[in-house]
Amino acid sequence: MLCLCLLLIRTGGIIPPVARQLHQENIERIVQQALSLSGVCVDELSAVATTVKPGLALSLGVGLDYSLELVQKYKKPFIPIHHMEAHALTVRLTDPVEFPFLVLLLSGGHCILAVAQGVADFLLLGQTLDIAPGDMLDKISRRLFLQKHPNCSGLSGGKAIEKLAQQGNGLHYKFKIPMERHADCNFSFAGLQSQVTRMIEQKERTEGLQEGQLLSCVSDLAAAVQYTVTAHIAKRTHRAILFCRRKCILPQKRATLVVSGGVASNQYIRKALQIVGNATDTNVICPPPRLCTDNGVMIAWNGIERLSAGLGIFHNTEGIRYEPKAPLGIDISDQVKEASIRVTTLDFTSDILKY
Ligand SMILES: *[C@@H]1O[C@H](CO)[C@@H](O)[C@H](O)[C@H]1NC(C)=O
Ligand SMILES: *[C@@H]1O[C@H](CO)[C@@H](O)[C@H](O)[C@H]1NC(C)=O
Ligand SMILES: *[C@@H]1O[C@H](CO)[C@@H](O)[C@H](O)[C@H]1NC(C)=O
């Protein structure tokens, strides 16, 4: 079964008209390249699958217009794809994961906890109320001028924090773990970002630094930020597992947690989630990094999943529109809140996580 996919690059920090122009300039070449590398022609495709939601309107529009022309010209079925659904299902390309499973999506644009009950059947347990963890780590990294640090040259913001955190003490500076009084599964990172920024400003004054100079304590700050972000994510995930068990949404034994998105490649966060998994008899799986970040393969895979399941395949594309905003599945975050599940303290022998 063959499926052509159109990837839409992530829009964080991209200027809309520029993004549209980039898409228009590249879409034909990328599609031709994908076809020639796989040695197939458009005629041989079973269907065309394209991201239609959520995302930046101008970019989604370029992909959709191009795809609709293609399916009309070649008389192919069309499969509209939800970007976050694609992230959630990618794991099934590499691992034999059966429904239902819990999925945690961590990236520069998203932070979502959901249950995948079927190819097109999701329960939303929680999501970020403000910014995403990848976005926050990037901003803190820039604010700390980590690109000037000798050990961080060429690293992205998130990777720079991870690298420096390895040589720092995560418990030397204390930040408040977000939303501790809310026993739900929503996330928040904006308040933490403000806390950290205030601490950086204070330290800069104390050390009498000029704009752009590195603080002496960058490693400890990076470690403390990473620790706090991780504790927040781990606690929400822990609660989600307990909630799903209580409501019999997931198997009582050996449930599966899939962690995906660009931030899922952070080894410290992974290890913390592994500890949560160990404590709750949950199998933790991360797709390989190249499938964790935004990619076209996952859109194609989602197309294949939908094609096999016979779900959401359009032969008449009239009325198909892109949707910049689109929730994933049915929002049951209120039920999670109602259950008011207190997460038991996980006390670890390794000092990585204590909450
Ligand atoms: C860079 O990393 C090395 C090895 O981890 C470490 O010994 C060194 O202190 C670090 N340099 C700085 C400026 O932190
Ligand atoms: C989780 O448990 C397995 C098996 O008991 C163990 O090998 C592994 O080190 C544990 N992982 C963590 C992060 O504690
Ligand atoms: C979780 O966040 C969503 C918005 O992202 C909101 O609609 C929902 O009410 C929140 N749930 C709780 C329990 O606060």
UniProtKB/TrEMBL annotation:
Keywords: Acyltransferase, Metal-binding, Mitochondrion, Signal, Transferase, Transit peptide, tRNA processing
Listed GO CC annotations: mitochondrion
EC annotation from Swiss-Prot or TrEMBL: 2.3.1.234
Residue ranges constituting the Gcp-like domain according to the UniProt record: 10-301
Similarity field: Belongs to the KAE1 / TsaD family.
Cofactor: how bound: Binds 1 divalent metal cation per subunit.
Catalysed reaction equations from the record: L-threonylcarbamoyladenylate + adenosine(37) in tRNA = N(6)-L-threonylcarbamoyladenosine(37) in tRNA + AMP + H(+)
GO molecular function terms noted in the UniProt entry: metal ion binding; tRNA N(6)-L-threonylcarbamoyladenine synthase activity
Xref: Pfam families: TsaD
Cofactor (UniProt): a divalent metal cation
Signal sequence residues: 1-20
Protein name: N(6)-L-threonylcarbamoyladenine synthase
Enzyme class: transferase
Role noted for this protein: Required for the formation of a threonylcarbamoyl group on adenosine at position 37 (t(6)A37) in mitochondrial tRNAs that read codons beginning with adenine. Probably involved in the transfer of the threonylcarbamoyl moiety of threonylcarbamoyl-AMP (TC-AMP) to the N6 group of A37. Involved in mitochondrial genome maintenance.
Gene responsible for this protein: osgepl1
Record keyword Protease present: no
Single biological process term from Gene Ontology: tRNA threonylcarbamoyladenosine modification
Main localization, broad class: mitochondrion
Gene3D superfamilies listed in its UniProt record: 3.30.420.40
Localization of this protein: Mitochondrion
Domain of life the protein comes from: Eukaryota
Keyword Repeat: no
